[in-house]
Write a structure and sequence with these properties.
The structure holds two protein chains of two kinds.
Chain A (H helix, E strand, L loop, with lengths): L6 H20 L6 H26 L7 H17 L4 H24 L5 H20 L9 H8 L1 E2 L2 E2 H19 L1 H18 L4 H27 L10 H11 L11 H20 L4 H19 L2 H13 L1 H5 L1 H4 L3 H4 L1 H4 L5
Antiparallel strand pairs in A: 1-2
Helix pairs in contact in A: 1-11, 2-7, 2-8, 2-9, 2-10, 2-11, 3-4, 3-5, 3-9, 4-5, 4-9, 6-9, 7-8, 10-11
Chain B lengths: L1 H18 L9 E6 L6 H19 L4 E5 L7 H12 L5 E4 L8 H9 L3 E5 L11 E4 L3 H16 L4 E6 L5 H17 L4 E7 L4 H14 L6 E4 L4 H11 L7 E5 L2 H10 L5 E3 L2 H17 L9 E5 L3 E13 L2 E10 L4 E3 L10
Parallel strand pairs in B: 1-2, 1-3, 3-4, 4-5, 5-13, 6-7, 6-8, 8-9, 9-10
Antiparallel strand pairs in B: 10-14, 11-12, 12-13
Organism (chain A): Candidatus Segetimicrobium genomatis
Membrane topology (chain A): Multi-pass membrane protein
Keywords (chain A): Cell inner membrane, Cell membrane, Membrane, Transmembrane, Transmembrane helix, Transport
Chain lengths: 346, 351
């Protein structure tokens, strides 16, 4: 396998390793397998939702409703279970609830043509509100052990949710880099109009992205409920910002068209080990927030330097053909989605 | 460009290094205290009390490696994560105030299973078997009754009152509300609790829900009770802005420092609370007694010697009212009766 890493991904790996070294010096507990595996329990929830979020941001969209959706799906699951439904059918219906909530976001964005930030800002409030209304302010407790294992169990020593996260990364990576629709996502972020004129079903792809985001958020909501042992309406409050932070730290551009899943996974890992290691090193929480903000800013500043210049030269010299034939070439995945691919080359 | 990147990395790493705490003391008892959040005078006062107790114990030859840390704002998820991280350091005891009674049960159980003495203070977890002792600042029954009594004294026995609480899932606040309802039903049948709003322990939101209440029930509301230190000053501020200072009774639970100006102006005549400095102080003595084995979980008729506070009884069973109906508290150590801060005595306190 030939893995080529982007400049920003190399920066991220450097950052991950160097913060790992520093944190290991600060705390003797940090660099133990038990601690690192335990930390991935927290990474998995954010990491899972960050996968479709990366694709959505590449397509120049955003989904702010994910954390509210986590709470809503978990609440739906908890209420059904409380009313006598067996746990796994309740989980399935909870996941369907979240998927429908995601589909609704996508439908309003793609069909009614309301900007994603407006739609999901509204559903952020609406979904959380419905969850709070359903719960009446109290959490649901006492889930069976088989369900709690989703949040606290292990498979061959690895936390269950970490295994799910890894599976999610593989599926998402195959979709984004190896399928036609996955490559179109970059095109949507670059130039949506061009794709539309090329006869590509942009709306269908966008609808699919937000639906997938809802599905994954619901899954993460189940894992969250299993980890804390309770379904509650204020679950995962503020997670949407951590998720978007990880994606942006991972080098995905909010302007669309650029970004990789490798970057996002590295972003999630860096945020996770910083929070874990700094707590172990007894750094106060407020100071941790300042540090994480500094890391984000420092990383994003370094991205701005090298790649830009290289991309400009790459576009002006080696890629004139697809530009001229944009309309026709766009309908051909082999060619077009070079648009996203070309940024990998320098 | 490479320089710039190197510079950014170096800067970040330097920050990381600079913030590292000093090396941990050898062979000292490790006691970690995790409040709901660190940015409030109330929890700072419990920290002060805890540090007093640590210093006293040190004077008696008990070395303690004490750490006070918590989320910077009320955040259940961050608290769970911090406790889980800190448990990896294998402390002898952790002292927790739970942001969410239910959600913290698994992490508390996990710590207890790892052989760590788990003490809750200020806000308990929902499952008493998840911890060893709860250092109780005053039962819900006592505090809820004291708040309703203040309203009855200042607004009459047929007052209509509302509550501005913290988070809808906050076990403490919900239980005080249940105790208030109980007191009203038993002692003041003509009194009425008309509405409950939630400010989520955030100043801006507490202020806006207080305004909502005042506007909705203009002229038909005699009192507002805010059983959280974040909301009470904001409710007082909202009452003043609506021109109702002195016309509507505002009371609740808060610290003297947060309420001083309102108590002096007369917007709030009485603030009910306990002394959080004593609470943190007692929590350390309870943690220490649990580590040494002087206090044993589940045994009846025990007591703990708590320095300047004297002796406090450790109760295996105590009846109380909570958000989930009547409850027999298990393994509780009571701080004492609630305290009323008024214009006359408030200047004696600084927390």
């Amino acid at each position: 396998m030939n893995i080529r890493l982007l400049w920003r991904e190399r920066v991220l790996i450097g950052l991950l390793i160097s913060s790992g070294v520093v944190l290991a010096l600060l705390s003797d507990v940090f660099l133990t397998p038990a601690n690192l595996l335990r930390a991935t329990r927290y990474a998995a929830e954010i990491g899972l939702v960050a996968l479709p979020m990366t694709m959505i941001i590449i397509s120049r969209g955003i989904d702010l409703s994910v954390a509210s959706n986590m709470a809503l799906s978990a609440m739906a699951m908890g209420l059904l279970w409380q009313r006598g439904l067996p746990i796994w059918p309740a989980v399935a219906i909870g996941v369907v609830t979240g998927t429908l909530a995601g589909w609704l976001n996508g439908w309003v964005i793609a069909r009614v043509r309301v900007p994603a930030i407006v739609v999901t800002l509204a559903t952020l409030a609406v979904y959380r509100g419905i969850a709070t209304g359903l719960s009446g302010g109290t959490g649901i407790l006492g889930f069976p052990e088989s369900f709690l294992a989703l949040g606290a169990g292990t498979v061959a020593g690895i936390p269950v949710q970490t295994v799910i996260w890894i599976a999610g990364i593989v599926i998402a990576a195959v979709f984004l880099t190896r399928t036609t629709n996955g490559r179109y996502i970059y095109g949507i972020g670059h130039n949506e109009t061009a794709l539309r004129f090329s006869g590509i079903a942009v709306d269908r792809i966008v609808l699919g992205l937000y639906t997938a985001s809802g599905f994954v958020a619901a899954l993460a909501g189940m894992i969250y409920a299993a980890r804390v042992g309770t379904a509650k309406s204020n679950a995962a409050a503020g997670y949407e910002l951590s998720i978007i932070t990880a994606v942006v730290l991972g080098g995905t551009s909010l302007a669309g068209g650029e970004g990789t899943l490798v970057g996002t996974v590295l972003g999630v890992l860096i945020l996770t080990i910083l929070q874990n290691g700094l707590t172990l090193a007894r750094v106060p929480a407020a100071m941790q927030d300042v540090l994480i903000g500094t890391v984000l800013l420092a990383a994003v500043l370094t991205y701005r330097e090298r790649p830009m210049r290289k991309e400009v030269s790459a576009q002006s010299t080696s890629q004139p053909a697809p530009r001229r034939a944009a309309g026709r070439a766009m309908s051909d995945p082999e060619n077009t989605l070079a648009a996203g691919e070309e940024r990998r080359k320098p | 460009m490479r320089y710039r990147q190197a510079f950014a990395l170096t800067l970040t790493l330097a920050l990381l290094m600079g913030l590292a705490g000093p090396g941990q003391a050898q062979k000292a008892l490790k006691i970690f205290m995790i409040p709901k959040f660190t940015g409030a005078a109330y929890f700072a006062a419990t920290e002060k009390g805890a540090k007093d107790a640590v210093a006293e114990l040190k004077g008696r030859g008990v070395a303690i490696d004490f750490l006070y840390t918590g989320p910077s704002v009320a955040n259940t998820d961050e608290e769970i994560r911090m406790i889980d991280d800190l448990v990896a350091q294998k402390p002898d005891a952790i002292i927790i105030s739970a942001n969410d009674a239910e959600a913290l049960v698994p992490v508390a159980k996990k710590a207890k299973a790892a052989g760590i003495k788990v003490i809750t203070y200020d806000a308990d977890v929902a499952d008493p078997t998840a911890r060893h002792w709860f250092v109780n600042q005053g039962t819900f029954t006592l505090v809820g009754a004291a708040l309703v009594d203040v309203v009855a004294e200042q607004a009459g026995k047929n007052a209509r009152f509302a509550v501005v609480s913290a988070d809808p899932g906050a076990f403490n606040q919900n239980s005080w509300i249940a105790a208030m309802k109980d007191r009203v039903a038993k002692k003041y049948p003509a009194m009425k609790l008309v509405d409950i709003r939630y400010g989520l322990d955030k100043p801006a939101e507490s202020f806006s829900v207080a305004q909502d209440l005042i506007n909705k029930y203009r002229g038909q509301l005699d009192a507002i009770i805010a059983p959280t230190s974040v909301a009470l000053p904001k409710v007082a501020e909202a009452a003043e802005q609506a021109g109702l200072a002195g016309k509507i009774v505002v009371t609740g639970l808060s610290t003297p420092n947060d309420m001083r100006e309102f108590v002096k102006k007369g917007t709030v005549k009485t603030v009910v609370l306990w002394n959080p400095v004593d609470l943190g102080y007692l929590a350390i003595y309870v943690a220490h007694a649990t580590i040494t084995g002087a206090l044993k979980e589940g045994m009846a008729k025990q007591s703990v010697q708590a320095g300047r506070l004297g002796t406090r009884e450790a109760t295996a069973q105590l009846n109380d009212i909570t958000a989930k109906g009547p409850l027999t508290l298990r393994n509780v150590i009571l701080l004492g009766a609630p305290f009323r801060f008024t214009k006359e005595n408030i200047d004696r306190f600084n927390f």
